[in-house]
Amino acid sequence: MDADKLEKYSSAITLSDMEVFVFPELMYSLVLANIMSPIIWKWRDEDCFKRLEGKSPYKRLMRLKQYIMDEYEFNLDLNTWGLTRQDRELKRFAKFISPEDIARSNALFGYHGDEYYFDVDIRKHFGLDKYDGDVIPYWKTETAEAMTAFGRKAGYRAGAGECVSLSTLYAAAAFIVCGIPLEDIYIILTPLHSQNFLDIQNGVLTNNRRIVTKTMWFNGTALSEKAQRALRNEQVTVVAHSTGYVHCMYDAATMSKDAYRRFAGLLGDFLTTPLTSLTLANFLRCNPCYQKHFQFCIKRRGESMFIMAEILFHYEHGSNFRIADASFDKLIAEISNEDYSPHKASSRLCCEQLMAFIEYERIDFHKRADRDRLENYLKAFLPDAEAFADDLFDFLHAEARLPSSQKDYVPSQPIEISVGQSRQEIIDYLQSVRAENATADLAFYAYRDMDTCDWAPFVKAAMERNPVSIEETKDKSIRQICDWLNHMPDESIYEGNRLAQPDEVVNFGTGDGIEKAILLADIIGSRQPQQRMELVVDGRHIALKADAEYTFTSNKSLEKMLVVQPLQ
Length: 568
Description:
The protein is of the alpha+beta class. It is 44% helix and 14% strand. The chain is built from 27 helices and 19 strands. A hairpin with a 3-residue loop joins strand 17 (541-545) and strand 18.
């Protein structure tokens, strides 16, 4: 491999936040690696999914959400994958993207979030302020195997992963378990988040472990407000799809132009809703500062009764029932008589009266002139009618800052696999298109398929980007490290002839003999940069030849002999 290709292909092994940003095809490569993984295919045999056979993809997706919430924790521990330095990473990628562009788009390199996104410094928000100088943590995206292996790590009750890991897991599971076609799954990356948009029902967003339907997006709860932060306030950096990707900073796009236009339209529809009695109530729920200007008119025994908006929302807060939805009558039944008034408060606007005005005047919030008419009507009741109208419009309509559609769309081979295919059929297909589709080829590196991949990217990643191994063993002699490895279980977290990286072995406390030998090579290389090392993999017999010969036993069936080059 030439140096540029080696950089990209080794990045498919480590999959750091920075690497995915610079090489956007890596995002979908991990989705495909997870689709090839046996882990998610085993979920289909779980009773909870067996019982849903023949049910709609949407019903299965709802069950998948609970399954993922039960089996995986959200993890953003900055120490999980160790530390690196800004200057080192910027130098590494300088030929691909400028430091200035990186700083505008990555939280580790200067990005501080939209001014409305956080009210604290972004580095402090993520705990980065505890690092001196330009020291930064690696944020690595985990494979399904690594996510599941967190259950072995102290302090974790089950699997775990950060937002990018969870989005790729969700995408693969939506395809395998829920039967949602790949062409209906879009991955959305922003500087601080990663989520998926699924073209199912009226649209569904995956958000870390949870999912957000269109109804949830507009329900006015604090949880939904948090889920909206990225799309409302951040530039979308990458959109990835089975046809390719679109990147905010690259002129060329490999995603189908039609697919990108379709996605933009679907997302736009998802982020917009009409004003109804329900959405007005939802708006007031998440904007309590306006509640003091409103009241609700409620019919009781044929009589009109009035209740202050803030009082009604107080009842709702402690109830299972909601204002203006199908359960509203049950909420009304919980209200004490003393909280009603038979008289309308002249200083307050009835929500029903506002809705009647909007419907009669056919107010279109997308038209400035219509918003002006609404503001004039509201001035008798609200001191800042313009702010209310603008906030209401913003609630009803979000506009994602997507990468420009004015790209040079490069024809590329799409990934064409169907929900009816078996795991092996999919693997065979992806193998067959590797020569024409770089994403498919990179998927086998993310999958860690050492039978069919060049070992150079794997070894380069192992020797250069596994700081946890170095830190955890800094006080041990080589002999002590060998004793530690020999007492460690010999089980790899990857089945077959696939290999874990050194920091995965250290974090999860288990590893095959080949993985242990490469971990030892990483440590020796960091201590003795000039030391020539030779790794001999001969079936069960593994030998690392350096200043001495270190032997291990493998349960895999690989054969390889190579010189291991430490980081210079």
